[in-house]
């Protein structure tokens, strides 16, 4: 029995620590059902959750996405300028087209697999170090990841697997290697690319000419 109780005790301690971390994360304003209903009333939206196709839950101080299960009709969700720590609890938003998560504290792109109609996602001004888990979104066209923590070719190579992407904003990261060109050249539908504020612009000789030659369908680079 002692041999069994010891690992169980370790598991209990680990679970307790995890729960404590979650509780710490959830301090501050909560995205409760009551708060969302109040928001709908104040913004003259529908009281019946599934009838709403948009929610403006920005500038609320939320640290966690929660209690959106009944809002199945959403096509546009504004969650920017909160204190969100992760992307989560969006599995019911299968009709979502646009998701705005900029100016939060998100470190990882995850939990988007149910959003098969998603066209646009804005994750600028977060703490993302790697682009991942976007290729599962078949109609994703527009991605904004400016002002994050992207540095290497490996951090962004997943973009080449996102077949429908046409607009990509990676401005004001820390991309340095000229090899990033290979990623963009592999994106056959790329039309708009923004790399302003990255050291790589100075590391590629004839930067604009090289990008426009390598990216066959590119129509807009940086600010022009």
From TrEMBL:
Family that this chain belongs to: Belongs to the DNAAF1 family.
One GO term of the biological process aspect: axoneme assembly
Function: Cilium-specific protein required for cilia structures.
Compartments, record wording: Cell projection, Cilium
PANTHER family assigned: LEUCINE-RICH REPEAT-CONTAINING PROTEIN 46, PROTEIN PHOSPHATASE 1 REGULATORY SUBUNIT SDS22-RELATED
UniProt name for this protein: Dynein axonemal assembly factor 1 homolog
Repeat among keywords: yes
Keyword Repeat on entry: yes
Keyword terms of this UniProt record: Cell projection, Cilium, Leucine-rich repeat, Repeat
Coiled coil: none
GO function term, MF aspect, one: dynein complex binding
Gene3D superfamilies (alphabetical): Ribonuclease Inhibitor
Primary site of residence: other
GO cellular component, one term: axoneme
Domain of life: Eukaryota
């Amino acid at each position: 029995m002692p041999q069994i109780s010891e690992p169980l005790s370790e598991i209990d301690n680990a679970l307790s620590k995890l729960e404590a971390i979650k509780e710490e994360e959830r301090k501050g304003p909560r995205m409760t059902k009551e708060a969302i209903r109040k928001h709908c009333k104040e913004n003259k939206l529908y009281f019946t959750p599934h009838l709403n196709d948009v929610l403006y839950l920005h500038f609320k101080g939320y640290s966690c996405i929660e209690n959106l299960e009944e809002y199945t009709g959403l096509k546009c969700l504004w969650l920017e300028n909160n204190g969100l720590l992760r992307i989560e609890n969006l599995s019911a938003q299968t009709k979502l087209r646009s998701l705005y998560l900029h100016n939060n504290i998100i470190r990882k792109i995850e939990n988007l697999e149910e959003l098969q109609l998603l066209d646009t996602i804005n994750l600028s001004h977060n703490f993302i170090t790697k682009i991942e888990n976007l290729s599962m979104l078949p109609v994703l066209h527009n991605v904004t990841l400016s002002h994050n923590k992207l540095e290497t070719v490996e951090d962004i190579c997943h973009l080449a697997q996102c077949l429908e992407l046409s607009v990509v904003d990676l401005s004001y990261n820390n991309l340095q290697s000229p090899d990033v060109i290979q990623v963009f050249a592999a994106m056959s539908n790329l039309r708009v690319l923004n790399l302003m504020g990255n050291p790589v612009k100075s590391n590629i000789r004839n930067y604009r000419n090289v990008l426009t030659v390598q990216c066959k369908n590119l129509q807009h680079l940086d600010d022009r």
